[in-house]
Specification:
There is one protein chain. The protein is α+β, with helices and mostly antiparallel strands. It has a single domain, classed as Gcn5-related N-acetyltransferase (GNAT) (Aminopeptidase, 3-Layer(aba) Sandwich), CATH 3.40.630.30. It is built from 5 helices and 8 strands, in the order E-H-H-E-E-E-H-E-H-E-E-H-E. An 8-stranded mixed beta sheet has the order 6-7-5-4-3-2-1-8. Helix 3 crosses helix 4 and helix 3 packs across helix 5. It is globular. The two termini are about 15 Å apart.
Amino acid sequence: MKPPAHTSETLVITPVTKVTQSAAFEFHSSCLGEFILPVPSAAFQRMVGAGQLVAVERRGQIAGLCYVKPDGKELDSVSRWEFGGLHLSPVLRGQGLGTLLSAVAITAVTRADPKPVMGYVHQDNPAGLGLLVHSLGFVVTDQKVRLGPDEAPGHLRRDSAGFATAHVLQLPDAARTRLFAGLEHIGLDMDSPSIRITVRNG
């Protein structure tokens, strides 16, 4: 019996625009669960206008999404970017696309305004922690954030007291520089941060 033949297809990683905003918001809303918080429609629109949302487009459809937006956790008085909302369609996982999508989003936003970048990963989400720490170069800090029972109701995995706890991660400047260099190496033009990539199916 012959093994199945491998095929390939071209995907595009590109900022979400007003044209793709509705489809991206629908994708985001369909991905909410115990590890992804909802972004209100108005905040979503602001991120689109500021170029802070990046998507994977597959066959004309949104198949992946993440953002880098102003951080609102107010850990202290330092102004930061927050990386989050990462989700890929299951069919695209396991090929490094999450890392590439994240790198494009971080680079697109921080190139013009290189503030510190933070990430927040639910304590029960080892997959998210692994992607951030190992693939992108984030480091785990000694800080945690907790959302109480009345914050983002209906979302996030919670403990018996109703709290959701997330690890706080920081992207060192050296790691951000490596992301920039890696994208430049594969030919990404940051004046127009879109990139076509070919992936194998089967």
